[in-house]
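Slide 14.
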Amino acid sequence: MAYARTALLIVGALMALIGLIWIGQGTGVFPYPASSFMINQSPWIWRGLMVLVLGLIVVWAARRFVR
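Slide 15: predicted structure.
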């Protein structure tokens, strides 16, 4: 079960990181690459927020329930 917990922690952390990047691009705070279609587009703020929250839930569940 240690492998499952580690895998879920990595997946959850990557989801949270991707969510933060999407939020940054959607708000225009992280405009990389400069030609990205996601920059200053409000739908990506909400999508990033959902992915961030889901990633944090995965990390929480892996720490709480997987032993």
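Speaker note: The helical segments are 2-27, 42-65.
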